[in-house]
Amino acid sequence: VAYVTLAAMVPALGQFAFRDELITMFVAVALDEGAIETPDELLLAMRLRAAYPSYDWSSALPQWQGRHMLAARNGKRLAAILCETSSDKPALFSSWHPQLHSVWDEVFSVYFGAGAGKETSAGAMEFSTLWERVADGGLFAGNASQFRRYWGYLLLERALEHVGEDAIATLITPNVVRALTEQVASASGGSGKSPLSKVGQRAAERLVAACEGNTKVGLAVLTQLLGQQKLAGQAAGSAPPTLRALLTGRIVATLDSEAIFRYVCDLQQMFLEPGTTVQGARAVDKQRAWAVDQMVRVARAAQLPVTDALTTDVLRFVAVHASLQRTTTVGGGACGVAALDGTMPTPALSQTTRDHCSSTLVAFVGDLSRISTHGRSEGQSDDAAGSGRLAVGCSREGLVWSTLALQTVAEGAKRKKVSMVLPGNDEVQVLLDKTLPVLQRMAKRTREHAEAGQTEAAQRVRALELLLGTVSVLAVFSTEPATRAEYAEVVPELCECFARLDSSEEVAEGEPQPVEVLTEILISFLTKDSLILRKLCEQVFAPFTTLVTAAALDSIIG
Fold it and tell me: From residue 334, how far is each of 299, 331, 337 by CA, in Å?
């Protein structure tokens, strides 16, 4: 109560001619010469520093760095204080209180009050960073006490009231999800009767209600959950997280493909124009990376009614912003492949953002190469895409996703006032010129074999197309020069392998069979760091098992 009273007196100090002397007295007596250890002291210090920025705070509070109390450099100290673990003096925290400390009102006013933009530009860390350090890493940490988790649930409820719809998903961090999952599970099992369980269940329900009330929020939160492959504390092979199941059941049931496409359009617009509230190059890069991650999670989520059109849209959007730039504005529209026809990114894309788009695209193509079109629910027949292995890694029309990514770059680079910005542009252009015609011939041969009822032959050509397309994507979009060169060297070998497989001529005596060349290539891929290729190797080799020769078998065994 005393500190709250002192904090309320702060504005009145400016009325006195000896204001600085009063501030010095407050610091000396109430703040123990700047040794801030409790939330009460932090509240008073924040009020004083915000009200009188011209005072010599670097001398008054020497342990606090930066221009703002909430600067990132003070993150560790802030987390300890806000979690009430900052001192070795047990007497400071001898009693527990069931309410959030009033210092959180001050913190929320910094980030969500009238002057929020000015506060962050003045040196305060991003709210998402503070949340990760204090909430996820402190109040919801695996070793956090029940008392601190209780505060964590109250803090989540308070945050839901303040953060904008675009930022709610940033609250869904791994430890928060784990803690909420425990409470949702206890409620479903009938054991959640303790005060901690009740407040946790209430926080989870408010989160779900916020998602149900706004499709955009619901999709943002759900895709954030889907992006967390393994939650903290969840054993491999266990049942799906209860919180994820709850959100999926109550949100996905209300969605259709149009709602999902609108959400992706919003994400793309957020990427193109982060807005004036996002200050600083690092904040812009972070928001753009989040937008790209979210749209990719949506496109590859089996739980959502995702169409091939949306997957195509996302794939081309990410590919364009990883590889191309325009020198002028052309046309209108702001979504999808309007990456080339619509709004130019403002501010211009940084190399950090382009690199993130490149690495995300490589992972996205790798995931799509293992997804069957049969798993997508568009209400269409599977006949257009074939069956079994022919439906993997492609759209219903049979267009292989890796080929689409490469076509997007090649076609975009040919447009007026559009240039390629990938490292090694000349080498990339040569690779695309040589590879795309081969990929197109592969797609044609696959269709011809399938139409003729030659399923095994069609599967082999499709497998080669998936492999060549994925390797080419790695050669084009990898950010490391050595990695690009390494994969670029393999591309001609795969093209030659297809040419021999497709030829009606017998292989000359002493020359290796196509399956032997392919086996050697696949074995070399198994030794590489690329998880994408290691997973693809088994998928590609399966259709060729009936063609394995003694030499190929020796390579496998030896």
Answer: 18, 10, 8
